[in-house]
Amino acid sequence: MAYDGGSGPSKPPPPPRYVMLTEEYGSNSLARVPPGGRRNMPRYHKDGGGGCLCWCCCFLLLVVAAVAATVAYFVYAYRPRAPSYSVSDMSVAQFDVSASDLTVYAKLVASVHAENPNDMIGIGYGTGSRTVVSYRGTTLCSERLPVFYQGHRNTTVMRVAMEGRHGFGSRLQSALEESEKAGNMPLDLYVSVPVTLRLGDVDLREVTVNVQCALVVDSLSPKKQPAIKSAQYKVNVDF
């Protein structure tokens, strides 16, 4: 037994803090090798995409509400009403059917009424319009409408002189003769015109108004004034 300066027997060393079994020193050997550094635990952060989506939805709702409020104010302040169109009469200046070359030459004049019933909205009729008269799908004549501005609560009558020469088949000639004898001549009048609404001094976006009129007249003879027996109208707008 060893003595430490007369202070009593020495104490055994404390056991190692870290132990690890290794094959190098045997299965019962203890290697005093401390383990490696501690593994960093993964940190999970909250995804901020939910907040961004919420802001986008709120912004979209604000835009929709602003547009709805603008439309409601426009309807309340200006009280817009759709214009109306009609054909009051039609005259035949010339209508010749040539059996030799199977062509028809037609010169028709139609009175087109355009009514603007609005108190605060003007209508501008622009370039690029087209007016066509056809018989059972075959074009007879065509022309363009004049360019003009229609003021508030105004009715404008346009005298549109249409002219054209087009080919046809033998069946169409027989159909024309039968319709003339029966006194029921079906015609299709098609009008397409770009228009712009004007609110005060501000012009809105240009749109195209399409008018389809199914007419039935008693004759297309240039020797007499044809009478309009019936008329049906369809109007649609291309934005």
From TrEMBL:
Membrane topology: Single-pass membrane protein
Record bears the keyword Transmembrane: yes
Keywords: Membrane, Transmembrane, Transmembrane helix
Subcellular location as annotated: Membrane
Keyword Phosphoprotein: no
Domain of life the protein comes from: Eukaryota
Domain Late embryogenesis abundant protein LEA-2 subgroup: 112-213
GO cellular component: plasma membrane
UniProt GO BP: defense response to other organism
Transmembrane stretches, start-end: 48-76
Protein name: Late embryogenesis abundant protein LEA-2 subgroup domain-containing protein
Organism: Oryza meyeriana var. granulata
